[in-house]
Amino acid sequence: MNPRHGSSEPPRSLDESMTLLTEVYRRPLDPGYAEATARRAAGTGPRRTWRSTAGLVALAMGLGLGATAATLALRQPAGAVLAARELLEAQIEQRSSEADDVQAEITAMTDEIAMLQEELLGDEGQSVRDEIDADSVQSGVTAVTGPGLRLELTDAPSDNPDEEDPELRVQDVDLQVVVNGLWAAGAEAIAVNGQRLTAMTAIRSAGDAVLVDLVALSSPYTVEAVGDAAGMQTELARASAGQHLATLRTTYGIGVQMTSQSRLELPGTGLVTLHEAGVPDASAAPEPEAGAGGGAPEQRLVAGSAGQTRRDGT
Amino acid sequence: MIAVIGLVIGVVGGLLLQPTVPVELQPYLPIAVVAALDALFGGLRAMLDGIFDDRVFLISFLSNVVVAALIVFLGDQLGVGTQLSTAVVVVLGIRIFSNAAAIRRHLFKA
User: Where does the sequence pass through the membrane (chain B) (predicted)?
Assistant: First the structure.
C-alpha cells in the first residue's frame, strides 16, 4: 500500500476489523421494519387476510404467555434456593446452640463429679486421689504439660498436583508406627495435631484423610509426646520406628522433623466412657490396684485400622 | 397493533395461569428473555419511528428467542455454552442499549 505506486485499491476504513460491532451499534433496529414499510408504500406487501390476522394474534398471545412463563420461572428458583438456605442456616444455629448447651452441661457435671469425689475421699483418701490423678493422665482425660518431643511429618511435595500419589502422602500406618514407637520409647502422653491419644483412640484412614479419633487431620501432622525427650529420641532411633522414619524421609521424600521441646501442652479429652463396672469384693480387690500401678503397657496400645482396643474394666 | 394487544393478552394470561416451564428448557430461559427484550425494544422504537409492522415484530420476536436458545444449546453441546451465552448477551445488550437510546431521543428529545 505505497501511495507512490498509485494503488487502485480504495483506502481501508479505520474500523474495518470491527464491522460486526459497528453493524450492531449503528443499525440496532431490525431492517425488516424498513423493508416492510417500503413494501407497503410500493403496494407490494402481502394482503392482510382474516386468517393471517388470527395467526398473528395467536402467535402474539403464545409469545406473551411464553415470555411471562419464562420470567416467572427465572424468578422463582432464586426465592426457593434462598428459603432453603435460610432454613439450613437456622437449623445449623439451633443445633450449634444445642451442642453448646450440652457441652456446658457436661462441663458442669464433670466439675460436680470431681467435687463429689473430693468430698467422698476426704482427708484419708490421699493415696486414692494420687492414683486417680495418675490414671487420668494415663487415660488422657486431663490436660498435660511438660517437656517432650515434637515430631512433624509433612507430605512430600508432588511434581504433578493433578495426579496425587498416595505413596508421597503421610498415611495412617506411618502415624501408627510413630505413635507406637513413642509409647514404646517411654512417652507419657501423646497428641497428634492437638488430638490427645487415649487407649481408645484409633488412627486410621478414610479416603485421603487420616482420622485420629474420628477427626480428619491433614498434613503437616504434629505428633507431640510428653516425656524424657533425650531418652525418647535415642529409643526411637534404635527401634523400628526410627528406621521407618528414615525410609519415609529418603525413599518417599516425606518431611520428618524432630525437635525436643522444654514445654508441651497437651489437651485432655475430658471424657471417660464407662464400659464395664462392678462392685469390688474381697477377692477382686487386689486386681484394680495392680492394674492401676502397672497397667501402663496395656493402656498404651493404639488401635490399628481394625478399630478400637478394649481396656479391661477396673 | 394487533400484535401488541395479543402480546398483552398473553402476558396477562401467563400471570393468571402461572404455567410451569419444563425443566429441560430451563437453561435457555435467561438468554431467551434477553432476546425477547431486544425484540420488544426494537418494536417500540419502530413504533416511535412510525414504521411498526405486526408481522415483522412477531416474527423477529419468535426468531430471536429461538435462535438465542439454539445458540445456547449448541454452545452447551460444544462445551462453550457460557462463552456463547456471553457473546449473545453482549450483542443483544448493545442493541437494546442503542434502541433504548433512540427511544429516549424520541420521547424526551434529548
Answer: 27-44, 56-74, 80-103
Give CA–CA dist A253/A246, Å, rounded.
10
* Peptide linkage before A220 cis (omega within 30 of 0): yes
Q: What pLDDT does A92 receive?
A: 92
Residue B7: CB atoms within 10 Å: 25
DSSP per position, A61-78: HHHHHHHHHHHHHHHHHH
**Per-residue pLDDT tens for A139-188?**
888 888 899 999 998 888 877 766 667 788 888 888 999 999 999 988 88
Residue A12 DSSP class? P
Scanning B43-72 for CB atoms below 8 A from A yields 45-46, 49, 51-62, 65
In this structure, chain A runs to a length of 314
Of A264, A257, A260, nearest in space to A229 by CA: A260
Instruction: Using CB atoms, pick whichever of A21, A28, A64 lies closest to residue B6.
Output: A64
Judge whether B31 is closer than 8 Å to chain A, CB to CB: no
Question: Rounded to a whole number, what is the distance in Å from the CA of A161 to chain B's nearest CA?
Answer: 24
B-chain residue closest to A28, CA distance:
B95
In the sheet that holds A189-192, the strands lie side by side as A195-196, A189-192, A221-226, A144-154, A255-266
Residue B34's alpha-carbon distances to A285, A296, A312, B68, in angstroms, are 85, 74, 73, 9
H/E element holding A145? strand A144-154
Residue A7 cell numbers, joined: 494503488
Phi/psi at B20 (5° precision): -95, 140
**pTM higher than 0.80, yes or no?**
no
Please calculate the CA angle A88-A93-A99 and round it to the nearest 5 degrees: 125
What's the 3-state SS for B18-86?
A: CCCCCHHHHHHHHHHHHHHHHHHHHHHHHHHHCCCCHHHHHHHHHHHHHHHHHHHHHHHHHCCHHHHHH
Q: What is the pLDDT of residue A39?
A: 84
Question: Cα A258 to the chain's mean position, in Å?
Answer: 26
CB B33 within 8 A of CB A34: no
